[in-house]
Design goal:
This protein has 7 helices and 20 strands. The protein has about 325 residues and is an alpha+beta fold. It folds into 2 domains: about 220 residues, Zn peptidases (Aminopeptidase, 3-Layer(aba) Sandwich), CATH 3.40.630; about 100 residues, 2-Layer Sandwich (Alpha-Beta Plaits). Strands 1-2-6-3-7-19 form a 6-stranded mixed beta sheet. Strands 13-15-9-16 form a 4-stranded antiparallel beta sheet. A 3-stranded antiparallel beta sheet has the order 4-5-20. A hairpin with a 2-residue loop joins strand 4 and strand 5.
């Protein structure tokens, strides 16, 4: 029987930062082919592909992503923790899904598919492409670090770029220009005053001022300034758009960017349940069946230099994925 911790460690030795997932795709596809799975590689961009593996289909698809955020952090095992980039987000999860699906197949269950996508950490181009595949599953079990709880729902997201304009001038004669940075500095602190919706399951809508850029040199009055905001949505996006437009009216220009809706997920009786505040690929995989979200590990250490997964939790996750699949297939 495959040791899930050893498999996860092998995956963690591969640098698969978004855009450079080729080696991880090759590793996973060869692992599956060696165990008798029917594997399809769906090219997303040159050198990058989604991995779709099937036995018979028409049941449950286990899915997560193979890409990670940079920079690469090599794996190390310390006590009961496996450290490394992707340990919990989401290569440890991928390893648990691989072992669980293979265990089910060896036990005679043919209604299990596996889908591993690229690009989740930056635009989700893999999931968008995967939704064009001929999916037949009734349920999609997506993997993200949920602290081994079934997620009752997930917040959505909305990106907004805020722009202010001024007039350039030599800083020695600043009175001849108009700073674009000053009105931005006055506007941004007031974002917390706008009314944002809440949800009984997902909680409050939140906003983060993620970036701010302005000016070119210290001796030039800045003519341009922009900031990027990220809203974590719990409901209707149009009400948030309206509030932001009223907030910025007459003071800044807005450019509404990528949007992922908030979602409520299917759950199973007998499992601990809790909502999550982050987004996943689930909204982009609508053809793959009724969605569930589950994974070992904590989002609080994902994307950090000390990202890790508890090896006992990782081993337990194999059995939990098997239990989830069997429960869904027996419904």
């Amino acid at each position: 029987m495959t040791d899930v911790v050893a498999l996860a460690a092998e995956l963690l030795t591969i640098d698969s930062s978004t855009g450079a997932e080729g080696s991880a795709v090759d590793f996973v596809s060869k692992w599956l082919i060696a165990r008798g799975w029917n594997v399809t590689l769906q090219e997303v961009t040159r050198g990058r592909a989604n991995v779709f593996a099937s036995r018979g289909g028409r049941g449950v698809t286990l899915s997560t992503h193979l890409d990670t955020v940079p920079p690469y952090v090599a794996p190390r095992l310390e006590g009961d923790r496996l450290y490394g980039r992707g340990a919990c987000d989401a290569k440890g999860i991928a390893a648990a899904m691989l072992v669980a699906a293979d265990n089910l197949a060896k036990a005679g269950e043919q209604r299990i598919d596996l889908l591993f996508v690229v690009g989740e950490e930056k635009g989700s181009d893999g999931a968008r492409a995967a939704n064009r595949l001929p999916a037949t599953s009734k349920f999609l079990v997506n993997g993200e670090p949920t602290e081994s709880k079934l997620a009752s729902g997930a917040k959505g997201s909305l990106r907004v770029i805020v722009r202010t304009h001024g007039r350039a001038a030599h800083s020695a004669y600043a009175q001849l220009g108009e700073s674009a940075i000053k009105p931005m500095l006055a506007l941004l602190p007031t974002i917390d005053s706008i009314h944002l919706p809440s949800d009984a399951v997902l909680g409050e809508t939140t906003v983060n001022i993620g970036t701010i850029r302005g000016g070119t040199e210290a001796n030039i009055v800045p003519a341009q300034c922009e900031a990027e905001l990220m809203f974590r949505l719990v409901g209707d996006v149009e009400s948030v758009r309206g509030e932001v437009e009223r907030w910025a009216k007459g003071r800044a220009e807005l450019d509404f960017g990528s949007y992922i809706p908030a979602q409520h997920f299917h759950t199973i009786e007998g499992f601990e349940v809790a909502p999550v505040a982050y987004t996943s690929d689930i909204p982009l995989l609508g053809r793959w069946g009724t969605p569930l979200l589950f994974g070992p590990g904590s989002i609080h250490v994902a994307h950090t230099p000390d990202e890790y997964i508890n090896v006992n939790e990782l081993r337990a996750a194999v059995g939990v994925y098997e239990r989830i699949a069997r429960s869904l297939l027996s419904a």
